[in-house]
Amino acid sequence: xxxxxxxxxxxxxxxxxxxxxxxxxxxxxxxxxxxxxxxxxxxxxxxxxxxxxxxxxxxxxxxxxxxxxxxxxxxxxxxxxxxxxxxxxxxxxxxxxxxxxxxxxxxxxxxxxxxxxxxxxxxxxxxxxxxxxxxxxxxxxxxxxxxxxxxxxxxxxxxxxxxxxxxxxxxxxxxxxxxxxxxxxxxxxxxxxxxxxxxxxxxxxxxxxxxxxxxxxxxxxxxxxxxxxxxxxxxxxxxxxxxxxxxxxxxxxxxxxxxxxxxxxxxxxxxxxxxxxxxxxxxxxxxxxxxxxxx
Length: 295
Ligand SMILES: NC(=O)c1ccc[n+]([C@@H]2O[C@H](COP(=O)([O-])OP(=O)(O)OC[C@H]3O[C@@H](n4cnc5c(N)ncnc54)[C@H](OP(=O)(O)O)[C@@H]3O)[C@@H](O)[C@H]2O)c1
Prior knowledge:
Blueprint: E1 4-5, H1 8-30, E2 35-41, H2 45-61, E3 64-70, H3 76-88, E4 94-97, H4 107-113, H5 125-132, H6 141-152, E5 161-165, H7 172-180, E6 189-193, H8 200-204, E7 209-212, E8 230-233, E9 237-241, E10 247-250, H9 255-258, E11 264-265, H10 273-291
Parallel strand pairs: 1-11, 2-3, 2-4, 5-6, 5-7, 7-8, 8-11
Antiparallel strand pairs: 9-10
Helix pairs in contact: 1-10, 2-10, 6-7, 6-10
NADP nicotinamide-adenine-dinucleotide phosphate binds at residues 142, 165-168, 170-172, 193-197, 200, 213-216, 219, 234-237, 272-273, 276.
């Protein structure tokens, strides 16, 4: 069997068109313009690219976008003061602090300072807790994107054996939480694996849906999956440079071998990646609607 490709690029395009339409209607009918503020501390090149993509997408979809690029010498107190200002600014509905932060700034304190109503990344403990109890406001963007990939590709989630490799707070734990809720498009049996898991292949071979967020190339090989599995590869690993000097990216799954056994699989790049920013836009629009009493 050669797997069907689940294209994040295509699905993200559909969702972006829906968001753009919603933003136009919000403006026309309610005079509401969703506003997203990004904060980047320092000049890490990868973070600059991510923030640039977020700003560009906001503008393309008609959101109001405010970019705060501040020097690496910024103190925690100054950063907290900026967040406080944005928390109080009615034009801003979503605040995104690009991670990682420089070592002298306490990441937890910063994330806790964002008003949960403007926490469009979904990392504030209030939003983590709401997701855990099955009443989410803002679902973290990458797991939300994974969920949409599954739903929009017609993958049956209810009753499925889902195995998640990785237990990070930004991918593994939230996607496990989303899929085990007693809701439509969830209600799966979820197993979460990590480096303490005794026999990883024992679990991955049972999976109807395998979600891999380990950050290790070829963490999953063909002998570790069953025929007909649906594979979502979250990993982004830079394994060198092409002749033209571009980064060569691979996921966590041995794509060429696993695609011969899988029913469906996401590519890297072009799988989960394009969904993450799209879901940030969705959360920002939701935040604006909630602030205006429309959701
Ligand atoms: N496309 C996107 O938008 C997007 C977004 C976020 C992340 N990513 C990518 O997804 C990957 C994971 O990101 P993350 O932030 O979740 O990573 P992370 O915080 O480094 O967590 C990795 C998780 O994988 C587990 N793990 C690592 N190697 C393993 C192995 N051989 N067997 C079993 N478990 C293993 C670790 O276990 P322990 O807990 O025991 O250490 C940990 O829980 C990275 O490549 C990252 O770049 C992509």
